[in-house]
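Data card: per-record layout.
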Amino acid sequence: MSIAQLENINLYYEIHGKGDPVILIPDLLESSQSWQFIVNKLSKHFKLILFDNRNVGKSDCSPAGITIPIMAEDTVALMEFLKIDKAHIIGHGMGGFIAQEIAIKFPGKVDKLVLEATAPHSNLRQNQLLNNFYNLLEKGTNRELWFRDYFLWIYSAQFLENIDFIDALIEFNLSYVNPDRIEDFKKQINAIQNYDSSSTLNQIKAETLIIIGEEDILTYASDSEKLYQGISMASYPVYFEKTGHSIHNENPKNFIHTLLGFFLKYVR
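The structure for this 268-residue chain is written out next.
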């Protein structure tokens, strides 16, 4: 178990593979373990750095509120702790907000940027939905049923038909997500509600790949497309058919293929 003792927080992290560094930033409620379906194959090409954001998993909790800029600073501090000057950055959902903030505030730290199932900001429907899920947890809703309902918004209809796989995912989440940290979920919700990069997207100078699940009902494709409109170095978004919000979990093979094409396309 590796812990980075940073100036303001202690973060759990893992390193897999060798090569050019790739930082993977997880979504709301998720942890370093959310990348498990792509780690083995992707680590054959890159040095992967996975970590738990503050207030999640095995990282320390901050008693105060958290923000996207604070979590971006955490990520950069982790890079400096690991003596990584520059890296490819992948951000999923809320992790995409953090990745944008890094590219805006710390452009020298970013080689190439990948934004998966994310947008410049959350929308009213998403905010209300997440707050409703928080309220259910606060009232003591059965956690297994809670995850089953939550997954209806995360995964596509086709993926949800794989009952055994969904059962395994729920069992894993029940074992990893600490039931005593409900308020940390609320802090993350507040962080995404208060973030909006719309006016600063033009400051992102890193070459950017935007990945969208066509059946993502948590983050609208139309909101994700705003990233393409605002980032001058963004290539046209890649759309994954029959895929929901968790693209790297639903379609890991094609997700990895897309990343390799983006990261290595100028390598001879």
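Known properties of this structure: The chain is about 45% helix and 15% strand. Residues 2-263 form a domain with the Rossmann fold fold (CATH 3.40.50.1820).

See the next section for split statistics.
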